[in-house]
């Protein structure tokens, strides 16, 4: 396996989906080598950007594949790519050891559909569920619910998108 420092970052899109009350959709992950306890298993929808795919369409696709949500309006995006490294001890378990972490392009959306549209148990396109539970959460709480190595990214997302939390 290549040295950790020589591994690339996996391109990914992240989605902060806010309801009409200004709360953000989070899901409790099914599993993963990064889970260290029951508190830090929550995250916003996010997923890989395919080769040749633009980040914005990838965000919409991933949101649909993970939650079945299509009824959104774009509120904004973070201009920069945000990066995080996964812990070195789990590199071989995550993404088959091909990446050192992710570079993420983040978008904020307003969810404008009925809550019945959200279906994490039967994701679109026959994908395996990534979440076992979901809920709405205040934006400010996001960094404290995610695994520690993603906290700086989630803090930046919370800081940038808190302006959309005001219903």
Kindly summarize this structure in a few lines:
This protein is an alpha+beta fold and 167 residues long. The chain contains three helices and eight strands. Strands 1, 4, 5, 6 and 7 form a five-stranded mixed β-sheet that branches. It has a three-stranded antiparallel β-sheet with strand order 3-2-8, with no helix packed on it.
Q: According to CATH, what is the class?
A: Alpha Beta
Contiguous runs where pLDDT drops below 50 for at least 5 residues: none
The topology string of helices and strands comes to EEEEHEEEEHH
Query: How many strands, which pairing sense, and closed or not: the largest β-sheet?
Result: 5 strands, mixed
- Tally of domains: 1
Structural class: alpha+beta
Q: Rounded to an integer, what's the Rg over CA atoms?
A: 15 Å
Give your account of this protein's structure.
The chain is α+β, with helices and mostly antiparallel strands. Helices cover 17% and strands 29% of the residues. The chain is built from three helices and eight strands, in the order E-E-E-E-H-E-E-E-E-H-H. The strands form two sheets. Strands 1, 4, 5, 6 and 7 form a five-stranded mixed beta sheet that branches. A three-stranded antiparallel beta sheet has the order 3-2-8, with no helix packed on it. The protein starts with 8 loop residues before the first strand and ends in a 6-residue tail after the last helix. The model has no long low-confidence stretch (mean pLDDT 90).
Topology at a glance:
Blueprint: E1 9-18, E2 24-29, E3 42-43, E4 46-48, H1 55-67, E5 72-77, E6 82-85, E7 101-111, E8 131-137, H2 142-145, H3 151-161
Parallel strand pairs: 1-7
Antiparallel strand pairs: 1-4, 2-3, 2-8, 5-7, 6-7
